[in-house]
Structure formats: C-alpha cells, structure tokens
Amino acid sequence: MLPKSLEDRLKKLINQDNVMLFMKGSPNSPKCGFSKQIVALLNETNVKFGTFDILEDEEVRQGLKEFSQWPTYPQLYVRGELVGGLDIVKELQATGELMNTLQPSS
C-alpha cells in the first residue's frame, strides 16, 4: 500500500494536464524506444500533452507502477484515467480511436 503523501502526489501529477505521459526521458530526448514511439504517435495527433520523466524520481517511478497496477513505462493518462502503454496507444491509433480518447468529450 502506498503512503498517502505519495498517493496524493501521484494523483496531482496524473491530473497536471488533460493528457499526461509518464515516460523515460523527455519528448525531445526519450531514453527508450517505447517512449520515443509513444511520443511520435502523440505528436501526430497535435494534442497538447504533459510529460514526467520517471527516471528523475525513483519514488514516482516505483509508486506509479503500484498505483496504476501497470508494471511498465511509458504510461499514458487522459483526464486522470490510465489509458495504458505503447501497445494500447498503437491499437487505439490503428482503430482510429486515439483522437476520440485524447480529446475531451463535449
């Protein structure tokens, strides 16, 4: 179980932007192939997204895995909800659902 302070911090980070990506590195300098691919897919949508470099904060890196019940990175959140990792984002793009997922419902 996560300490309440860490859980609160994770919730705040997750909700920092409507679309929030937890990745290794930064969009301009991804530190793994999966992060690079997911950034490329998101950039194609022209949807603004925030990022957090999980390599810069071990507490967040370990805590978010437990919080989300998702063991790997990158992790994409939209409006505070976990969408998933690269495989799910690729699948959403292939089925034409990625834009609907990323954009706020009207």
What does this structure look like?
The protein is of the alpha+beta class and 106 residues long. It has one domain: Glutaredoxin (3-Layer(aba) Sandwich). Helices cover 46% and strands 20% of the residues. The protein has five helices and six strands. The strands form two sheets. A four-stranded mixed beta sheet has the order 4-1-5-6. A two-stranded antiparallel ribbon has the order 2-3. A hairpin with a 2-residue loop joins strand 5 and strand 6. It is globular and about 40 Å long. Belongs to the glutaredoxin family. Monothiol subfamily. InterPro entries: Glutaredoxin, GRX_PICOT-like, Monothiol_GRX, Monothiol_GRX-rel, Thioredoxin-like_sf.
Q: What is the molecular shape?
A: globular
Mean pLDDT across all amino acids: 96
Counted up, domains total: 1
What is the level 1 CATH name?
Answer: Alpha Beta
Along the chain, the helix and strand elements come as HEEEHEHEEHH
What's the total number of strands? Answer: 6
Distance between the termini: 36 Å
Say which CATH homologous superfamily is assigned. Answer: Glutaredoxin
What's the CATH architecture?
3-Layer(aba) Sandwich
The helicity comes to: 40-55%
Strand content: 15-25%
Structural class: alpha+beta
User: With helices defined by DSSP (H or I, 4 residues minimum), what is the helix count?
Assistant: 5
CATH fold descriptor: Glutaredoxin
- Note poorly predicted spans: none
Biggest sheet architecture: 4 strands, mixed
Backbone CA Rg: 13 Å
Strands of the widest sheet, in order across it, are: 4-1-5-6
Organism: Homalodisca liturata
Protein name: Glutaredoxin
InterPro entries: Glutaredoxin, GRX_PICOT-like, Monothiol_GRX, Monothiol_GRX-rel, Thioredoxin-like_sf
Pfam families: Glutaredoxin
